[in-house]
Design brief:
- With about 90 residues, this protein is of the alpha+beta class.
- It has a domain of about 60 residues.
- The chain is built from three helices and three strands; from the N terminus they run ββαβαα.
- The chain has a three-stranded antiparallel sheet.
- Strand 1 and strand 2 form a beta hairpin.
- It is globular.
Length: about 90
Amino acid sequence: MSEPGTAKKAEGPPGWFYGGVTTTTTSPLTAADRCDRCGAQAYVRVVLANGELLFCAHHARAHAPAFTDVATLVQDETDRLLEEHGAGANAR
């Protein structure tokens, strides 16, 4: 699966973080925000006690097991991928 929201839709809200982590939004991520792992556009902000990490959707999924329990906030804007790439109209 390469896109968020295509599986496990009935199990919880959009995104990967269904429990334990607050998803309160801070300032919106922009095209200038880049993934700390690969440099792609960031769609997920992970706030930790000592700073924050930015991830593209792919690397957020890959590293979620490592940061979900230690994050103080996860800002998940991966739903924007469907809107920005025109898949929202086709998904209905």
